[in-house]
From TrEMBL, chain A:
Residues 370-603 form the ABC transporter domain. CDD domains: ABC_Mj1267_LivG_branched (cd03219), TM_PBP1_LivM_like (cd06581). Coiled coil: none annotated. Keywords: ATP-binding, Cell membrane, Membrane, Nucleotide-binding, Transmembrane, Transmembrane helix, Transport. It comes from Acidisoma cellulosilyticum. Gene3D superfamilies: P-loop containing nucleotide triphosphate hydrolases. This is Branched-chain amino acid ABC transporter ATP-binding protein/permease. GO terms for cellular component: plasma membrane.
UniProtKB/TrEMBL annotation, chain B:
This is ABC transporter ATP-binding protein. Residues 2-234 form the ABC transporter domain. InterPro entries: AAA+_ATPase, ABC_transporter-like_ATP-bd, BCAA_Transport_ATP-bd_LivF, P-loop_NTPase. Belongs to the ABC transporter superfamily. One of its GO terms (biological process) is L-amino acid transport. One of its GO terms (molecular function) is ATP hydrolysis activity. PANTHER family: HIGH-AFFINITY BRANCHED-CHAIN AMINO ACID TRANSPORT ATP-BINDING PROTEIN LIVF (PTHR43820). It comes from Acidisoma cellulosilyticum.
UniProtKB/TrEMBL annotation, chain C:
Keywords: Amino-acid transport, Cell inner membrane, Cell membrane, Membrane, Transmembrane, Transmembrane helix, Transport. This is Branched-chain amino acid ABC transporter permease. Pfam families: BPD_transp_2. One of its GO terms (cellular component) is plasma membrane. CDD domains: TM_PBP1_LivH_like (cd06582). One of its GO terms (biological process) is D-alanine transmembrane transport. Belongs to the binding-protein-dependent transport system permease family. LivHM subfamily. GO terms for molecular function: L-isoleucine transmembrane transporter activity; L-leucine transmembrane transporter activity; L-phenylalanine transmembrane transporter activity; L-valine transmembrane transporter activity. It comes from Acidisoma cellulosilyticum. InterPro entries: ABC_transp_permease, BCAA_transport_permease. Its main location: membrane.
Length: 610, 245, 304
């Protein structure tokens, strides 16, 4: 039933925003029915803050990087919108704007779009330099952005009324307007997070190195998330301005930043549901404490707590959450989809994949070659590898073996671009790629697995593979098709929708290999794929690796300590020891080579070997 | 001296050590061999207190030390030299050595141990003021062993001392380890090479898939025994033929 | 000449405050990967400890009236005790958490402390006139300089030398350096994690106390977010210097101080108010050229 299936997939797609919006709608109706002015005011304020927290979530949640400067973008949006929407009469009291702005006032909705976009663009521009830095330095850098714009706006009297409060902003934001924007934000955040961009950014959150290795342009993805996030912050700032009727530069500063971040952390920074839940919970807790500060009649005596208690409470609540539940009240989960249709999705994926797999694979071009010529690498004064040459042809399974510390992993790092050689060069089909970054090499057809596997843990197996497709330039749909193909080919489609961090060890390693294949490599590097596998698992692995060149038309470079696997699958083997090549040949030749026996299993005559 | 009883250790849900037991007597050099990923390093890290076993007991001189913090275990007399050397690269060679003795109160004995360490490793004496990071791999390996001795341990655990070293340097390192044993130290050495284990150890444990698959005095074991246990061949006639070098 | 030396003294004394603050932050980051936002609030509390607790905007001096040495000792003791208390209550239970979690926790601690200050002292600024004699000018080789600036620069030099000696020569200093390179290895050698971390917090708190006294004399007014501008400057100083490098933190602190004075001097009057924007913009430019900072620290980089 294709109709029903489409309905399911749309339902599944929009399930979280739909349920969250419905919940918030009920709460808003309840507040409205109470006809309690204070309650409605509080509810509206919560909804506006929720827009901002969703904005924060878009960046912090998906990228895993803390940002402390986001309130800046709310300020930019709020002021830009004030310039557009205030009446010329009111502007003339406080501001000294250019004629065009001073003499006009524009309709609120288009103004909101323009001003919100301005925030987004500013976030994009500030994101460009920030995202060049690494993790925690980005977080600190966002403070610099906060200071810069706060200073400018404090001193830009003609446009901002300086440190005074700008009043007379038209009031139009009701609880319904705020709710509408929350819903819009939820939908956009969902669409983003499920798009190729969101998926790519999330993969970098899970493992930045692995994301690079499958071709994801991490910096670009971060900038995109940052810009979108800034846009929502802008919208939040604008709504706030039109709700309170006034804005002041000093309000867009650290205390508000703290409250917004605390809301996200309390709910759980890794899920959209967390952003919503956190905003609600923290607001309610703080509101309750404020009631106590104002005084509460308990039986015959008046219970009154000192002022500032709500702030202390917020700080403590956040500390407790960080301590006991790092991923917040929601533990980083979304509201689960209630209909068990995974079997159907898997069946569908499998059926389509089998049709594609039935077609013969592309003919193999055995002339293409990956070569490393006379490569040496030195760490400090230490020679890790010395003048090693490696050459792999497409369609071949090539083994690189040697004792631990022989320089095999360093060699793979040189070939894949994670390590620059001190001397020597790397050629792909004759083209020098020595200076090409790992990400671009992946896109040119070199992909690797890691000893530590480095799966994107908080993502499904299917998503892990899709990221690799996206990283090598496929659309979301094509990446998904390719992922199903590989899983079906490996008979692994039953686990497609399982989260990677719940896989048993052997399966985890298989997904690591599958992810390499999902980049459609010309040359695939497998770094100790059999480590820790049982003998039975090794048999399966050998079968799998042997079939790869024929099916995917690539060359395989295998680093492995398990000799049964190496001797069983490799057509050609190169042996390294102490950073040098000591032998090269077929499995049979290697097995009888005395130098290899000495170097690898060790030798009783070591005294003569120096 | 050191007894490890059926310990189990996991990384998250992934078991790395499954019911492994061994013991070391005073004055012995015991080698644990096994392929990559067998659980050797995990066992060492667990004894040293960096990981906590989910089951099992670790005893030092009859005292239960299971689950104690690394610094407590070090102070009780186990000195761990982890894989990959880990010299403090910004500290001088002399400072690296002194760190090993910082927990001790017997100043005079520290002084004599310091001199003794430099006598064992003359190369370090020439490099005393050099930052640890500037030493070669072999020198670093000597430094970390010397540093471990500065704690005056009851037992020294050495994880893969041969890693990344030229064979001639490996020989030197093992000469030193054997000499230490001859002078009364108790050592546990993790090694990948069965041959080096046979050459140097008093007793050998072969570890595979987180369990001991073979143990014995090295004098009574042969290469073949070790290789079979090492690679886990069940059917010896076939398996060995297919893989034996 | 007078002008140039005056500017130099301005830059050095401002850079001194930033460098001392950055050191306090960098030490903790090096050892436990904590970017401590609450460091600024330790500075603030050091200043508030001088006066009688009250929400009355007219401050009444308390410890600030004691003999100079007593005041210094008392303030240092209070701030150090508070630093260690923060460690025990907030950061110790989170030991081993990733740097983001620690940073956000310190943000929460900071927010808590600031609001606690507001509860006790009120949110209005208070005038605090500590050691007015330091406001005098003195003539040094024909150039007139403010005594406070000389005291600030000399104090900083002495503390930097003292810290260097402490880290180089004492056993605890050696252990701290070892721990910041590889904490687990240090523990395998019997180095006590609790002791090293407590020592780092104590030194960090001591520096905060000194900064607090120098800054309060300079400013003359205190607010609940008194230390925030310093901690912001120190943050960017540690990033410019290279996260986790003690020397880098000092260099970065002075660089930010010099940038401040430079822009103060070269900017036209109409843009002077925007000085901080220029300073922080300059910082971002520096980071564009050297994203890992002036001094790269290996143990902070991730290995494949």
């Amino acid at each position: 039933m294709p109709g029903q299936s489409r309905l399911f997939s749309i339902g599944r797609y929009l399930w979280e925003p739909a349920t969250l919006c419905a919940g918030l709608l009920i709460l808003t109706i309840a507040a409205d029915l109470s006809q309690n002015g204070v309650l409605i005011f509080v509810a509206t304020n919560i909804l506006i803050q929720m827009v901002m927290v969703i904005g924060l979530y878009v960046f912090i949640g998906n990228s895993g990087i803390l940002a402390f400067g986001h309130i800046t973008y709310a300020m930019i949006g709020a002021y830009a919108d004030a310039w557009l929407t205030m009446s010329p009469f009111k502007k003339s009291f406080a501001l000294n704007l250019p004629d065009f702005l001073a003499n006009h006032s524009f309709a609120v909705f288009p103004s909101l779009l323009v001003a919100g976009l301005a925030s987004g663009i500013l976030a994009l521009l500030t994101g460009l330099p920030l995202m060049r830095m690494g993790g925690i330095a980005i977080s600190i850098g966002t403070f610099a952005v906060l200071v810069i714009f706060n200073t400018i706006y404090q001193n830009w009297g003609d446009w901002t009324f300086g440190s005074s409060t700008l009043v007379g902003i038209p009031l139009y934001v009701t609880e319904w307007v705020a709710l509408a924007w929350v819903c819009a934000a939820l939908v956009v955040a969902t669409v983003y997070q499920k798009s190729r961009f969101g998926l790519a950014l999330r993969s970098s959150r899970e493992d930045e190195v692995a994301a690079h290795s499958v071709g994801i342009h991490v910096r670009r993805e971060r900038i995109i998330g940052f810009a979108l996030s800034g846009l929502f912050m802008g919208v939040g700032g604008i709504l706030q301005a039109h709700f309170l009727g006034s804005i002041a530069v000093s309000a867009f500063w650290i205390p508000v930043t703290f409250i917004l971040i605390a809301m996200l952390m309390v709910g759980g920074q890794r899920s959209l549901t967390g952003a919503v839940v956190g905003t609600l919970v923290l607001s309610i807790v703080m509101q309750a404490l404020r009631q106590l500060e104002a005084g509460l009649q308990v039986a015959s005596f008046n219970l009154q707590l000192p002022h500032g208690l709500s702030e202390l409470g917020a700080a403590l609540l956040m500390l407790v959450i960080l301590l006991l539940r790092k991923n917040g009240l929601t533990n980083g989960r979304e509201i689960p989809w209630p209909f068990p249709d995974e079997a159907r999705m898997i069946e569908e994926g499998r059926a389509k994949a089998l049709v594609r797999l039935a077609q013969p694979p592309q003919p193999l071009d055995r002339t293409s070659r990956l070569e490393a010529q006379d490569v040496s690498v030195q760490f400090g004064g230490l020679a890790a590898i010395t003048k090693v040459t490696v050459s792999v042809a497409r369609g071949e399974i090539f083994g690189l073996i040697g004792p631990n510390g022989a320089g095999k992993t360093t060699m793979v790092n040189v070939l894949t671009g994670f390590q620059a050689p001190t001397t020597g060069q790397v050629l792909l089909n004759g083209t020098d790629i020595t200076r090409v970054t790992p990400r671009l090499r992946t896109q040119q057809g070199l992909a690797r697995s890691f000893q530590a596997v480095r799966l994107f843990k908080d993502m499904t197996v299917l998503d892990n593979l899709e990221v690799a497709g996206i990283g090598t330039g496929l659309t979301r749909r094509a990446a998904r098709d390719r992922a199903w193909d590989i899983l079906a080919w490996m008979n692994f489609e039953d686990k497609a929708l399982v989260r990677a961090d719940t896989l048993p060890y052997g399966d985890e390693r298989r997904v690591g290999l599958a992810r390499v294949l999902a980049t459609a490599p010309q040359f695939a590097f497998f770094d100790e794929p059999a480590a820790g596998m049982s003998d039975r698992e090794c048999d399966d692995l050998m079968q799998l690796i042997s079939d790869i060149p024929g099916r995917f038309g690539c060359g395989v470079l295998l680093i492995e300590h398990n000799m049964r696997v190496v001797m069983g699958v490799c057509q050609r083997i190169q042996v390294m020891d102490s950073g040098r090549t000591i032998a090269e040949g077929t499995a049979a030749e290697i097995q009888t080579n005395p130098a290899v026996i000495r170097a690898y299993l060790g030798s009783k005559s070591e005294k003569t070997y120096a | 001296m050191l007894e490890v009883e059926t310990i189990e250790v996991s990384y998250g849900r992934i078991p790395a050590v499954r019911g492994l037991s061994f013991r070391v007597d005073k004055g012995e050099l015991v080698t644990i061999v096994g392929p990559n990923g067998a659980g050797k390093s995990t066992t060492m890290m667990t004894i040293a207190g960096a990981l906590t076993p989910t089951r099992g007991l670790i005893r030092l001189g009859g005292v239960d030390i299971t689950g104690k913090r690394p610094e407590e275990i070090a102070r009780l007399g186990i000195s761990f030299v982890p894989e990959g050397r880990h010299v403090f690269s910004q500290l001088t060679v002399g400072e690296n050595l002194l760190i090993g003795a910082d927990m001790r109160r017997d100043r005079a004995a520290v002084r004599s141990d310091y001199d003794r360490a430099l006598a064992y490793f003359p190369i370090l004496k020439e490099r005393l003021e050099m930052p640890g990071g500037k030493l070669s791999g072999g020198e670093q390996q000597q430094l970390v062993i010397a540093r471990a001795l500065m704690t005056r341990p009851k037992v020294v655990l050495v994880d893969e001392p041969s890693l990344g070293l030229a064979p001639i340097i490996v020989d030197l390192v093992y000469d030193i380890l054997r000499k230490l044993r001859d002078e009364g130290s108790t050592l546990v050495v993790v090694e990948q090479s069965t041959h080096r284990a046979l050459e140097n150890a008093d007793r050998i444990y072969v570890v595979r898939n987180g369990q001991v698959t073979l143990e014995g005095a090295s004098a009574k074991l042969t290469d073949k025994d070790l290789e079979n246990a090492y690679f886990g061949f069940e059917d010896k006639t076939d398996g060995v033929a297919a893989v034996h070098f | 000449m007078q002008g140039f030396i005056q500017h130099l003294a301005d830059a050095l004394s401002l850079g001194s405050l930033f460098a001392l603050t950055a050191l306090g932050i960098s030490l903790l980051f090096g050892i436990m990967r904590l970017v401590n936002f609450a460091h600024g609030d330790l500075i603030t509390i050091g200043a508030y400890a001088l006066i009688v607790p009250s929400s009355n905007p007219n401050a009444v001096m308390f410890i600030g009236l004691w003999p100079v040495l007593d005041t210094i000792i008392a303030i240092c003791a209070i701030v150090v005790a508070l630093a260690i208390l923060c460690e025990r209550l907030a950061f110790k239970p989170m030991r081993g958490a990733n740097p983001s979690v620690l940073m956000i926790a310190s943000f929460a601690v900071s927010y808590f402390l600031q609001n606690a200050l507001i509860m006790i002292y009120g949110s209005r600024p208070k005038g605090v006139n500590l050691w007015p004699a330091l406001a005098q000018s003195v003539s040094v080789g024909g150039v007139r300089l403010q005594l406070l600036q000389i005291v600030t620069i000399v104090t900083t030099l002495v503390l930097l030398c003292g810290l260097t000696l402490f880290l180089r020569r004492s056993a605890i200093g050696r252990q701290m350096r070892a721990a910041s390179e590889n904490f687990m290895m240090a523990r395998f050698l019997g180095v006590r994690a609790n002791l090293v971390i407590a020592a780092a917090f104590a030194i960090s708190g001591f520096f905060a106390a000194v900064v607090s006294l120098l800054y309060v004399v300079q400013r003359g007014t205190i607010t609940y977010d008194f230390g925030v501008p310093l901690v912001m400057a120190a943050f960017v100083a540690t990033v410019i210097g290279g996260m986790g490098s003690v020397l880098g933190a000092v260099l970065g602190g002075f660089l930010v101080g010099f940038a401040n004075v430079f822009f103060q001097v070269v900017l036209p009057m109409s843009l002077r108010g925007d000085r901080d924007a220029f300073v922080y913009g300059f910082v971002i430019l520096v980071l564009l050229v050297r994203p890992a900072g002036l001094i790269k620290v290996k143990s902070v980089q991730e290995r494949v």
